[in-house]
Write the structure tokens for this entry.
Amino acid sequence: RALALPEIGENDVFLCYLPLFHTFGRYLEMYGCIFWGATYVFLDNPSVEALVSGMARFRPTVFISVPKKWIQLHEEIARVADPDRASDEEIGEAVRRVTGGRLRFGLSAAGRLDAEIFRFFQAHGVLLMSGFGMTEATGGITMTRPGRYKDDSLGPALPGIELRVDDDGELAVRGPYVMIGHVESPEGERTKDADGWFQTGDLVELDTDGHVHLVDRKKEIYKNVKGETIAPA
């Protein structure tokens, strides 16, 4: 999956807050930093105050988060420079001030973020991308590529993943980092079918460029601002 962002290397700094029992936090952020040779910085709590303080202190180049954090950063920037009155230069300076001045890559996943916020950060030097993933796929499945963002798109498949949309619109995925089954499942029960496909439970559409667009969910679980999975039932 690192092939999707070959520009990341030993000069990059990741600002992270996901706990290390979180699949994405462990296998993409922490192990990803080891793979890239980048610096991994872990915030001691997920509050917006800790986030803004960490941005200023550690001056990250990469930040990956649920949409709520990007909304909070956008609101903090708006407090520094009123987007209805400030010039582009003043807004750009506010973005650099709030994010530490070096942020170049961002990813928003695990929920919907308005295209307006994606475009805002992209217009001011932060290549904010959209993505989709699951624990069962060790994190990321799709991601828009730098400079090729599409409104309301989750992006095309990441390297190493195949996508299939079934007749009812459900997305199935296949690849070497998709799990075989649950440890405590009855013996012989697997999450993959005989051909290695895993059913995500999400209903999607694929456009002509292979970008995934989320239509609905077969399941109703969701992620809160701390990245915790909540099942209303």
